[in-house]
Amino acid sequence: MNSDFHDAIVIGSGPAGYTAAIYLGRAGYAPLVIAGAITPGGQLMNTTEVENYPGFPDGILGPDLMDRIKEQATKFGARIEYDDVTSVDFSNDIKRITTDGGKVYTTKAVIISTGSEYRKLNVPGEKTYSGRGVSYCATCDGFFFRDKPIVVIGGGDSAMQDADFLTRFGSSVTLIHRRDQFRASKIMVDRARGNDKINFTLNSRVTAINGDDKGVTSVDLVDTATGGTSTIPANGVFVAIGFTPVTGFMKGVLPLDESGYILVDGASTRTRVPGVFAAGDVTDKVYRQAISAAGMGCRAALDVQEYLGQIDNSRME
């Protein structure tokens, strides 16, 4: 085979992709991991302290955790390429993968672990002021809003964590949520409510983000219960309303659900295309945790090993 051929290729990184690489590497398959060019390591690279990953009772920074898992994968023979996949051809037994850098890789088996990306509000001003007051990463950009009013939009764990973190910087932090109940876990809600620097504006939806040539100045709101409108001053707007699976390059290639998540066969990681598997947030819209993604990465690697064993045995018969 050509030098670009691999028994198994992992598209994407994060807990799922790197864990899959660990298991495939230990099984002797020397997998290639196409980790991504912009944010290799997934969402944990933008996370501060991770407190619920087993084995770290005192917590661990997200980037440190991902570096350790990646190091473990390379220790067992995984090769990491920092590039983005632009197209795939899964129509034959040997799969073809093309990257943004122009490289073409072929493989017997593929694990897709491209995860998900930040969901947008899609309101006027969001795109205009992205990078000039609108942010999707509190740990990346919080420092730039020291002593300035900040709003956080969302009702999940990420929103609570972001709001708590941003109180280190902002003159005020207001958490805006469209309902009066939260999706976040009780411990995260209690922590946010216990921080007297966080104000809560509930039953409210952002309708526009306003600004000038210097950046964001305020956000417009509508009350979801009464229909009334208001405006809140803000220089930093942090959006934490969930994620969209990164499957754009898979449309028409793999069956996806209505939200764009890859469909798999029951509790396995098998897709409907033989030799193609999926793990992590790209197929999981329910649990969405680092540990569950890592577990799926393990399962995907084991599914790949079974698949490779079957096709190798069939060729020997």
Automatic annotation (TrEMBL):
Keywords: Disulfide bond, FAD, Flavoprotein, NADP, Oxidoreductase, Redox-active center. GO terms for molecular function: thioredoxin-disulfide reductase (NADPH) activity. InterPro entries: FAD/NAD-bd_sf, FAD/NAD-binding_dom, Ferredoxin-NADP_redctase_2, Pyr_nucl-diS_OxRdtase_2_AS, Thioredox_Rdtase. It catalyses: [thioredoxin]-dithiol + NADP(+) = [thioredoxin]-disulfide + NADPH + H(+). Residues 7-297 form the FAD/NAD(P)-binding domain. PROSITE patterns: PYRIDINE_REDOX_2 (PS00573). It comes from the Bacteria. Pfam families: Pyr_redox_2 (PF07992). It is an enzyme of class 1 (oxidoreductase). Its cofactor is FAD. Its EC number is 1.8.1.9. Binds 1 FAD per subunit. Belongs to the class-II pyridine nucleotide-disulfide oxidoreductase family. Homodimer. This is Thioredoxin reductase. It comes from Bifidobacterium favimelis.
